Description:
Blueprint: E1 2-6, H1 11-20, H2 30-34, E2 42-49, E3 52-66, E4 69-81, H3 90-99, E5 107-112, E6 126-128, E7 131-139, E8 147-148, H4 154-166, E9 174-177, H5 180-189, E10 195-198, E11 203-210, E12 213-220, H6 227-230, E13 239-244, E14 256-260, E15 265-269
Parallel strand pairs: 4-5, 12-13
Antiparallel strand pairs: 1-2, 2-3, 3-4, 3-9, 5-15, 6-15, 7-13, 7-14, 8-10, 10-11, 11-12
Helix pairs in contact: 4-5
Amino acid sequence: MRELTITHADREWQEAFIEFVPRVFPISFGRWTAYGGWDDTYRAFALADGERIVASASLARMDLVLHGKPVRGWQLGAVGTVPAYRRRGLQRSIMQRLLAQCPAEDLIFLFANDSVLEFYPRFGFQRRRESLFGAEHHAAPSGTPLRTLDASNADDRALLLRIAAEAQPITSLFGARDYGRTLLWYLCNFRGDHMRYVAEHDSIIVSTQVGDTLYVYDILTRAAFDLAGQLPRLIEAPIERLEFAFTPSRDWPSAEPTREYTESALFTRGPHQLPEIPFKYPTLAQT
């Protein structure tokens, strides 16, 4: 097996990584890489059998906010092994190499699915519980709908990166700054029709409506504005409820924790104490 550390400059192995990912996950890194999403803050630690990658885990450098203070963080993602190569200890080797690159005083974290909850504690990670937040609110469609960003439009991609770089953290409890390239990945893959530009505030709202509930995933802005006033421009039919995929104390202070977030489990490693009150790390800052 050949050990690799793939950076944004390694074009040949980037292509091998792009080919590897769909063999393990139902996702793609192709458009994100082609649009410049892979920069020097993102590295993939991989093992290759010949010219093909068979196992990998990625590491993204993050500027975090914890209890209102800046913290340097490292987020793991795309941890996987091709089925035919599992149960050989390949991920153990990768994790040891990857974690050696993270300073002990930093916050290292990841989001894991239910099938690997026993794996990460072997490397000093602890499970943390997160909450989703919600509020009752009636709104009906009115006004000019907000414009949807288009991943294939270079100006829209630049707009997203600029606003993300300038935006205040959506929460000071446990959040992140300047994660535009992670947002670009979502724009390319899962939230392509959910990112709306609010021109008068030079801001972006990410949301989707299901029935009479509006799910708000992120709000990127330099200064908080009246979210309730923008809701009629976001929805296609009346709503009765809001659900937030982040701690919404800034944008909707009356929202209450409603249930545990169970889509993926948060694990952390390092000396930092996470909030003891209910919180949600912004979902669209997850890699």
